[in-house]
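Replying to the earlier thread about multi-chain prediction with a worked example.

Input:
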Amino acid sequence: MPELLEIEAYRRLAEPVVGRRIVAVIAPDPWFLKGGITVDDLDLALVGARVEGLRRLGKLVCVDLAGPDGPRPVLGLRFGMTGRLLVDGRAGIERLEYGSDRGLPEWDRFALAFAGDGELRISDPRRLGAVELDPDESRLGPDATTLTPARVRDALGDSDAPLKARLLDQSRVAGLGNLLVDETLWRAGLDPARRAGGLGDAERRRLLHALRRVLDELGDRGGSHTGDLMAARVRGGSCPRDGTPLDRRTIGGRTTYSCPHHQR
DNA sequence: ATTGTGGCCTGCCCGC
DNA sequence: TGCGGGCAGGCCACAA
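Result:
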């Protein structure tokens, strides 16, 4: 599923559209439009606008726009767990975990056509992604790529919630999804069910160190699904580090695999 | 405010 | 061979 790493790949893929002018909006699926907006609202906001820049905040892509006659709203793109981005016919991520690579035309949920023939398109079989105008950026915590010891401390606070739930909470840390968190906690040797506020300084340092390495390494390898734990994340799987049968639990509302031996 | 739960959506895979 | 059920999880509404 797209987590921070995949969304960043999407943002980079879309960079060539900076500077282009939108000539048409194709929104065949009203369900995909969130915040009460209609196709007419999108036409009014987007057609004739020039793309000024692309920003990624956690799993949200913000498209900054400018019209010839004044400011335009920010276009927010969300990809849920099966949303793919295609720009000028090219895909950002070839293979999407839990997705499908068939890319049927009926999965097209939203597209922008640019002056001079290019296009930006979202294909999403499960319709869990979304398009909105002026997304509330203040609801997102600091991006996971920008964490520091102080920000980790703030994000965990003295919360009673499970550590994993807190890391998945986009208002505390933006960008992490189920696979990245399981991989990070497995590498850090931390039990996902631990009370978030109960970590000591050394444990928070281990967490941050593991997270940075996970983002670097899995980014290089090609995505959230390339972690060392991934192959063992199945029923009956064993810890790749010490061979202990993995626990399979629901934590933070997500299927969670962890090693009862070395994650404490 | 904080934390937990259920539901949305639908392709895919397994077992019968 | 077809079918039903379970599963995947990002996000949101809602409950306690």
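Residues 31, 80, 82, 98-100, 102, 124-128, 159-162, 165, 252-253 of chain A lie near DNA strand B (CB under 10 Å from a C1').

Feel free to reuse this layout for your own posts.
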